[in-house]
Amino acid sequence: MPTIVFATPKGGAGKSTSAVLLATELVNRGGAVTVIDADPNKPVSHWAKRSKMPELLSVKSDVSEDTIVDLIDETSRKSAFIIVDLEGTASMMASYATSRADLVIIPTQGSYLDAAESAKAIKMVQIQEKLFHRKIPFTILFTRTSVAIRTRTFQSIEDQFASNKIPMLKTHIHEREAYRAIFSFGGMLKDLNDKDVSNVRGALINAHAYVGEVIALLKKQTVKSEEMA
Question: CB count, 10 Å around CB of 2?
């Protein structure tokens, strides 16, 4: 079963938001999902406690550097998808989790500071590839972007990634009030009301596109693995 790891050494890049959006949208599509909340601040665990969780979704937060690999292996036998939300710092736990990943998603805001931290995350993936003699696919996910404005800085960063052949998701996680709302009140995007939160439909469309692209990427990798076998 696919293990998707969200990793970046920089805090506040949108890791937990991206992880929760992916988890809930996968559940809405009928997949059983386990989220391993490996962030010391436990943002996903706090979100999960604010409302009743769907039957197909579970969140595990009792994890340490010593147990992360065993927990990933154990949950992979029970869930269709394992999502790991790592802490926003470089750590051995991040390295161990990455070694088990079928896909590493690196959330990145459109700033040079975030881009530099993303490079560190990519380096961590490459080190694990060498250590374990296996390809670990990764991709950049731009977060908190504006729907209407594409800044010169953002375009420059995107161009630099492209010139270095760094994989990037075409879909960005936009800056949306709805994404903040689910962490404030719990639940999923589909539970939000337009009367209380602005443009829920826009957030749903954005989330659907993001998750659809991740699923397509995982399927493509599965085909490649079967062809190589």
Answer: 21
User: What CA–CA distance (Å, rounded) separates 160 from 166?
Assistant: 9
Which phi-psi region, left, alpha or beta, contains residue 57 (left: φ > 0; alpha: ψ -120 to 50)?
beta
pLDDT of 15-62, one tens digit each? 999 999 999 999 999 999 999 999 988 999 999 999 888 899 999 999
The Cα angle at residue 101 between residues 99 and 103, in degrees rounded to 5? 135
What is the domain extent for residue 10? 3-228
Domain tally for the chain?
1
Tell me the Ramachandran region of residue 172: left when phi exceeds 0, alpha when psi lies from -120 to 50, beta otherwise: beta
Furthest-apart CA atoms within the chain: distance in Å: 52
- At 138, give phi and psi (nearest 5°): -145, 160
The edge-to-edge listing of strands for the beta sheet with 138-145 is 57-60, 33-38, 81-86, 3-6, 103-108, 138-145, 173-174
Residue whose tokens read 């075409």: 170
Q: How many CB atoms lie within 10 A of CB 48?
A: 20
Phi-psi map region of 133: left, alpha, beta (phi>0 left; psi -120 to 50 alpha): left
Q: 221: which 2 tokens?
A: 């990798």
Q: What is the pTM of this model?
A: 0.94
CATH of the domain at 206: 3.40.50.300
